[in-house]
Amino acid sequence: MNLRKYLKVYKKFLHTSLASELEYKANILVDLITAILSLIGSIFLLSIFFQNNGYIGGWKFEQALIIQGIYTILNGITNTWFNPNLTEIVKHIREGTLDFVLLKPIDSQFFISLKKINPSGFLEIMLGFFLLLFCIRINQINLSLSFLALSLITIICSICILYSLWFFYIYYHYLVC
Length: 177
Prior knowledge:
Layout: H1 3-21, H2 25-49, E1 55-56, E2 59-60, H3 61-95, H4 98-102, H5 108-114, H6 120-138, H7 145-176
Antiparallel strand pairs: 1-2
Helix pairs in contact: 2-3, 2-6, 3-6, 3-7
């Protein structure tokens, strides 16, 4: 299959996931409130660590917020794509339906990794980006093309590592043990 067909299939996956999530509109509001309160709680906990000291390990509070923003983005990606999909592998193996996945005329890893999308994770991703933009402003970071490119490469590599760790975790935790 070429890229255009995969994008068309992914668009269907996204449409189906959004339709099932929008059945209960109150869930979106609850997910938004939960994501905001979780981020506020994380920032509050971080501020407690920096309460008595301006620096921890050479880091200022404003710099540590950058790490919190990146964590929030990666956690949103995990909640959007990895958690709903990779746990399905175990279900397919236990129910004996993995052969149906393997026989579909689409790449099996693409199908298993991207079939379900949890739209509430997008809220967390957006909150993480807003926190990063705020941190760039308060830390007075100059946005150059090289800085943006390196940041994007770092986040993409982080996503790949996180995806690999999730696959290993699912394999080891549910299938080996």
